[in-house]
Amino acid sequence: MANFLKRFGPKLAIGGVVVITGLVVAASIDRPSFGGSITAPAAPETVAAADPAPVSPPTPAATPVPAKPVERRSDQGMAVDPNALRVKRVLKIDGPFRHGDFAWDEKGAPATGPVVVTVDLRAQTLSVFRAGYEIGAAVILYGATDKPSPKGAFPITQKIADYYSRTYDNAPMPFAQRLTSDGVFIHGSDVQWGRATHGCIGVPKAFAQKLFGVTKVGDVVVITDGKMLDVSRAQVG
User: Which one of 24, 49, 154, 230 is least enclosed by Cβ atoms within 10 Å?
Assistant: First the structure.
C-alpha cells in the first residue's frame, strides 16, 4: 500500500485537484447570476408591448426681443447713417400743399424695409420713407417760439394710439409717437394755419393713423430746419 501511494499518490492528488477544479468551474458556469438553487428555465411569458412614451413637440426658439432705444432729450440728437437717408422715389404732389393736406401712396414701394421719417421745420412738411421710397407726406404744425421743436435725429421710443397730454390740460394726442424724454411727440392735430404746438410735431389725424401703422419703436425721425435730403436721383411718381 505504501508503495502504491508512493507510486501513484502524486498522480491521484493531481487528478483530485483537477476533478475539484472542474466541479468548481462547472458550478460557476451553471450558477445563476442572482444565486440560489438551479431550476429549470420557465416557459417564456408573453409581455405586452409598452405604449411608446409621448413625444413632446419641439419648443420653438424664442424670438429675440429688440433692445429698447435709448431715450434722448431734445438736445441729444443722434448720428444717422447717411445710407439710411438715400431717396429713391418721391411722391408726385400736384398743386399747393396747404395746412391740413397730406398725401399717402404705397403703390410701387417695397412692402418691407427700414422706415425713416423726415421733418423740415422751414418747409413745414413731414415725409415718411420706406426703403428709400416716399410713401407719405403732410403739412405740419411745430413748436412756437417759446417752445420750439428740437432739431436732430431721434428714435421713436414709445407708441400710444390713444394718448392725452399729462402737461397741457389733458389735451388729446391721438396716435402719439414719443421722440424725446422731455415730451416731444409726433401726433394727430387739427392742423390749421396760425396754430402751433408746445414743441411736438402735429400732423392731420388721418395721416397720423397711417404713420402710426407703418412705424415701429426704434425707427428714426430726422428733424431739420431747411436742410433737405438729396432727391436729385430720385424718381417722381
Answer: 49
- Quote the cell numbers at residue 152: 436732430
pTM summary value: 0.71
Strand partners, 136: 104, 128
Q: Return the C-alpha cell found at 15.
A: 487528478
Q: From 92, 82, 136, 123, select the one nearest 234 (Cα to Cα).
A: 92
Sign, CA torsion 69/70/75/81: negative
pLDDT in tens, 33-85: 333 333 444 554 554 555 666 666 776 666 666 678 889 999 999 998 888 78
Q: Calculate the CA 135 to chain-centre distance.
A: 24
Query: What residues contact 132, with CB distance under 8 A and at least 6 apart?
Result: 86, 87, 88, 89, 113
